[in-house]
Amino acid sequence: MISKFPNTKRVWNVINANDFSSTRDNLINNWFDFDFDMTFFENYKKLFLSIDIVALVNYWWNENSDFADVILNSRNCYLSATVINNCENVLYSFSVKDNCKNVIKSLSVYENCENIYMSTWIIQSYNIFFSKFINNSSDIYFSSNLNWCHNCIFCDNLENCSYFINNKKYNKEQYKIKKDEVLKEKDNYLKYYLKLEKIWKNINSTNTKWSSFFNSENIEDWYFWYNVKNWKNCILVWWIDWNENMYDVFTWWAPVAKDFYWIMWANWENLYNSMNITASNSIYYSQLLTDCSFCLWCIWLKNKSYCILNKQYSKEEWEMLADKIFSQMDKDWILWDFFPWILNPFYFNDTMAWILGNFTKQEVEKDWYLWREDEIKVDI
């Protein structure tokens, strides 16, 4: 079994997705009463350590994707993560969404893309190789920041251009000769890619800080956003329609969503300090819920409402107990805090935080996160 979880004492028991699906409906019977002699996070830890954890998350309508994580309505996905909504043939890639096909070794490929290899931040494009920040373009090699371009090699910051090499125009016959010469230099492909521009030009966006925004406004910090407004501290966020008022979000996709805070992989609205939520609303401090509402510190429930620590309450009981819990959290100065280190089962140097930041082992262990000393060993 391939699992994203390392073998640590912070995880109870890891099982495969098929075994989990057969037992999921019984999770409503695995609950705890809230103990006010313990902190909120200590209460949740009891529940977390009592529930089996799924090695890799496959939501629904998937085919041949057992070796990928966070897959929804997609086919033939392998060693990839966050592949959402009618994608096909996705290998070694991350954040591929909405009708994309034949994507290999790429990051952030969105909306009707096809034949994408070793590329980053590609939207509505096809036949893109070793390139970055490409929108509505085709047959692009070793290029960056192109909008509505076709047949370009070694180009940057162009719009509505075709048959360009090094930002210089060629006729169709000249271009083909030059292209054939370049594509024979296979040993140099990676070197060309690593030389590409690292900053996206923020096309069709206003009042933005940092880079890699498209069709967005009022954006502050981080990158890879599309069709959003009034956001802050987010990365890898996308939807075809507008969405707003979201903060501290990682890898998000949803139709017409709003009001998120400290969220990873979630959709619908009014979700706070939660992870891996689908088709739900008014969810607080929960993870891996589907079609739920008004759930507080719950795990893996489906089609449930007014639950706390996986225990079902009436609406009136839930509101009274939720008020007491939030009041205690406020007194303990942990209200609005995200999941603490005690509930983090991953090695810090295997996470996106490690990739984006500049941390030392001493800094990581000082805050009680886990550090992997050994090399990763795989046998696939």
In short:
This protein is an alpha/beta fold and 380 residues long.
Molecular structure report:
Helix content is 16%, strand content 39%. It is an alpha/beta fold. The longest helix is centred in the C-terminal third of the chain and has 17 residues, at 315-331. It is elongated, with a radius of gyration of 23 Å. It starts with 13 loop residues before the first strand and ends in a 14-residue tail after the last helix.
Query: Mean pLDDT across all residues, rounded?
Result: 85
Helix share of residues? 10-25%
Alpha-beta classification: alpha/beta
What's the alpha carbon Rg, rounded to whole Å?
23 Å
- Strand tally: 26
Backbone shape: elongated
N-to-C CA distance: 10 Å
As residue ranges, the low-confidence spans are none
Quote the beta fraction. 35-45%
Total helical segments: 7
Q: Largest sheet, described in full?
A: 16 strands, mixed
